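seq as requested:
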Amino acid sequence: MAWENRKDRGRYYTRSRRVGGRVVREYFGSGTAGEQAAAEDRQRRLEHDQRRLAWKILEDELEATDDALETIDAICRFYMRAVLESAGFRQHDRGEWRKKRND
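struct tokens:
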């Protein structure tokens, strides 16, 4: 997707795309067809950049939410452990909580 300058033929617009695993170049010329193809490519690129930016913003928001949830989870686990231990429970082999026996 670029304007190319050739010494003997002047300036013209080309677009490269992949077809069946191979790169194929489309030639649009230097007139209105070239200008129109360049405008379409600019618009497509702009829309792609806007979508990518929107995804990046959403990704950042989700990451911030994940961080907040991890903090809340750690606090809840801390308080749960304190309450269960004060009630006489112990955690068996990092698994289930069991009431301590009175031997």
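Residues 2-99 form one domain.
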